[in-house]
Protein: Serine hydrolase domain-containing protein
Organism: Nonomuraea helvata
Amino acid sequence: MSQVGDATARALLRRLAVEQAECRVPSLTAAIVRDGRPAWFGGRGQVDGAPPTPATQYRIGSITKSMVAVVVMRLRDEGALRLSDPLEEHLPGTQLGHLTIAQLLSHTAGLTAEPPTDWWERTPGIPAADLIDRLGPGELKHRPGRRFHYSNLGFALLGELVARARGTTWLKALQAEVLDPLGMNDTTARPRAPHATGYAVHPYADVVLPEPEHDADAMGPAGQLWSTPQDLARWAAFVGGDTGEVLDPDTIAEMREPVGVDDGDAWTGGFGLGLQLARVAGRRLAGHSGSMPGFLATVWADPADGVGVLFMANTTTGMRGTLLTDLLDILQQYEPRLPQEWQPAEADPDLLALTGLWHWGPKPYTLRLLPERGLALEPVGGSGRASRFVPRPDGTWLGLDGYYAGETLRVAADHLDLNTFIFTRTPYDPAAPVPGGVTGWHA
């Protein structure tokens, strides 16, 4: 499974070994994906008397949510629903029907974190109809849309929405539409051999306690699944954009966009549409963590660098929060990527004539050509509004990012019209149609 050099592999394995030994984890696996391909695997500890392998199953907990979210987005892309739809349109009778699908996906619906049942992670689940019958206004803890508040219950509702939309169970829909096409054949609802047993490690002694494992039933979409390092490696590549025929890459990119943030003294994490987000040391990571009694797991993708990383462990708690970013740091230190070679390209003469200096009032900007007739408008000195634009068939350009995302750029002989803002070759060119007129510069 290794595509990294021996020195890199040794450094990665040592970091994993330190985590397993110092955090007292019964067994621990980790893997790295680069450019969609497995690049490294490491395992420490014992599962049934042998080291864990890429085929050893662990429970992945809430990583299940991100997979269920993909089915919801497939329904959206098919036109079967809109993210702005209230839940009532697709799952009537919940007493929470005013919440939108987008709010449920992004944990901004204001729902309670846990369902109105016994501790759902440690007890057998109840059917979806029974869970829905228990829901009332008391399950709403915050005004919808007000803030990020993680909700396992919200994904139980999304799983039932999927089941009704597809006319089958959420699990069968997920299997047919996501897991099977991606070749994730070892991702299952219940464990199969070889699999790790979930343990709690005593905080003050080197002894363990087996944790229970049940069918969560209605709460299954929130954290039911088991998987393997080799399957989660494929999932990391998927989240990074290698979506195959399962989802349009633009849709997974939309899922990675931040909707809510986990607020605190200084926030570095948040949530998109079914995907957890983190910003660490300049990296923009997307994926999900997972926690169930006896198990911890996390998978991150860094689309900008084409890399993914994951770990799976059979312990209830106690691991550090830096293992995966440390592994990425080691990879970057030992085997940094080489930049793509620069090569000259063809340029449309009319577009080439547009490049150079433009002014938004007195503020100077530069316009550059990008591949495939794209444009980049950037403030001189780097402070201000910058956006990239792609051409449209009607001769205008569409903003991709920044302040002008989604806005229209029109090009005339003597000016640029960017959603009513006029850019001119010289500051407030009196020959251009600057709104309000130009009287001329004076002392």
Observations:
- The chain has two domains: 6-334, 349-424.
- The radius of gyration is 25 Å.
- Residues 349-424 form one domain.
- The chain has ten helices and 20 strands.
